[in-house]
């Protein structure tokens, strides 16, 4: 997301868990929205069940999970302005946040209401349809 020149708007609806929460936070500051009843949740990366895997495979998976956690913490540190130590502590157990909590934490910037003009400020409904290649037929 950070490699393109366009402004990135993110909108959290429903539940943004783990990496989805990180993606929500990675939009441009001031352009990160959540709906009023949406939830954001931070947690550590999970190690899938091991079953009867060999010790070597477990070691590989463990290293990969630690690398994912490090990247997640680095990105969240940049997008939320919290230190890695705080984020790591907060992620020891699932951290559920309402839209208001997520704004206070730095995951999002604003709550977008049904009647909000936030999305329309970017483009009109017709412009969104046109940009998506949708054509309205004349009646």
3D architecture notes:
This protein is of the alpha/beta class and 139 residues long. It has 6 helices and 6 strands, in the order E-E-H-E-E-H-H-E-H-E-H-H. The chain has helices at 19-25, 55-80, 84-90, 99-105, 118-122, 125-131; strands at residues 10-12, 15-17, 32-34, 39-42, 95-98, 110-111. A 3-stranded parallel β-sheet has the order 1-3-6, with helices on one face. The chain has a 3-stranded mixed β-sheet with strand order 2-4-5. The chain is globular.
Features:
three-stranded mixed beta sheet; alpha/beta; 139 residues; globular
The outline comes out as: globular
**Can you give the mean pLDDT?**
86
Major sheet: arrangement of strands: 1-3-6
Order of helices and strands: EEHEEHHEHEHH
The share of residues in extended strands comes to 5-15%
Number of alpha- plus pi-helical segments = 6
Largest sheet: 3 strands, parallel
Number of strands: 6
Q: Give the low-pLDDT segments.
A: none
**First-last Cα distance:** 40 Å
Helix and strand topology:
Blueprint: E1 10-12, E2 15-17, H1 19-25, E3 32-34, E4 39-42, H2 55-80, H3 84-90, E5 95-98, H4 99-105, E6 110-111, H5 118-122, H6 125-131
Parallel strand pairs: 1-3, 2-4, 3-6
Antiparallel strand pairs: 4-5
Q: Quick summary of this structure?
A:
With 139 residues, the protein is α/β, with parallel strands linked by helices. The chain is 42% helix and 14% strand.
